[in-house]
Amino acid sequence: MSERTPDRCGASGGSFRTAGRLDIISRKFVVCCPHCPTEVNLVPNLLIRDVPESLHIRIRREQKRRMISQNDCLLQLLTSAVDRLKGPSLFDDEVSEVAGSAPVPETGQGTYDVPFTFIDLFAGIGGLRLGLESVGGDCVFSCEKDPFAQKTYHAWYGENPEGDVTTLAASGEIPQHDVLAAGFPCQPFSIAGVSKKKSLGREHGFKDKTQGTLFFHLAEIIEKHRPPVLLLENVKNLRSHNRGDTWQTISGTLSQLGYCVFDKVIDAVHYVPQHRERVLIVGFDRDVFGDDPPFTFPEPPDGPLLRIRDLLEDSPDPRYTLTDHLWQYLQDYAEKHRQKGNGFGCSVVDLDGTTRTLSARYYKDGSEILVSRGARKRPRRLTPRECARLMGFPDDFVIPVSDTQAYKQFGNSVIMPVMQEVARVMKPRILKLIDPELARQKSLLAA
Predict the structure, then answer these.
(1) DSSP state, 102?
(2) Residue 308 burial (10 A CB sphere; 0-12, 13-18, 19+)
(3) Does the active-site annotation cover 186?
(4) What is the pLDDT of residues 404-413, one digit of tens each?
(5) Under a CB-based contact definition with an 8 Å cutoff, are residues 197 and 235 in contact?
(6) Cys-Cys crosslink for 100: which of 52, 128, 262, 437, Cβ 3.0 to 4.6 Å?
(7) Superfamily of domain 116-303+415-444
(8) Identified catalytic residue from 9, 139, 186, 346
(9) CATH fold of the domain at 308-412
């Protein structure tokens, strides 16, 4: 057990033993020092000194996230450490004796709940982050340009993402991390967005000057930081865009950067009552994992599909009901397209079934997902809270923006339960990266 002489010990040669317990009621630390009172006030300089800079950074980050003072943050972290049932507390005699000596158990089988670190690029409102945090990830950096998405991100996570991804590679602002997560922009490659983009005379994919080259800024960040693991998300059409050249460019770039790439199209309908196919890309650094690392995407869960009626609000506000004019317009427009043999995305959903893909255009008229209110009644659109549920977000997720912005944000987001499942099968690979001693240091302050 480590011993050191504290500032407050007046006994010559007295030693302060780090064993003890935290009295939550009195906010005092009961120590095992023969020369000091048995109860002493918490001394921040004593409690946080002689620890790695990484832990100082974690404390400061947690303080900012929780929006409390450093002392209160320390007290909460220490309380959590003392009360942990999974393993040694921060003040156990055995901690310093075992640190670094025993291997870290596999996840779910051992004593320590080890947080891995990740960065959240093109973060949107944080759906990817929710999935990674749910399996123990610790976000150390985030970036999102849209100011309304930043507002929602801050309302839930208590932090403001950086705004301009194009300058990050050269800025030196990104800390080291285990996983780089990014849902780089969907619009240039989305099937749902093609017709309206063309009507505006805009090109698609990498020819779109405002978004198409953002992948290459992402590649610059990957090249500079060489994160061991990548988790990327994009629309299904990424694979077929421009006769497959877009996908070949992306996968080829990642391979040239030294990553073994796995990809799969996953339909979210097995996790939420919405058909939403997206490409998930997982990359492992070959220098770390070898040329053929074992990895398999999760299989869809067994059981019946969820129903749209299970996520509807009991008493939605009447303002979400379509007006007579809009409902008549949508019916006339749909009939015109049927006569021409074209499809049109106007759909009153079967409440015992699933929905089509929720798009970022939903705010305009809600035509792709309309909810029946009964025979001879005008249907309504989903509420923002129902859209949040349709994307797998928890019911206490804060929506601080207008309905228009909320519809855009959820339409552009990822399905949180899908990301959670992918992160779950990635986690055993990630944990093999973490040094045992650092893992224990992380576990001691894990909230």
Answers:
(1) S
(2) buried
(3) yes
(4) 999 999 999 9
(5) no
(6) 437
(7) Vaccinia Virus protein VP39 (3.40.50.150)
(8) 186
(9) DNA Methylase; Chain A, domain 2 (3.90.120)
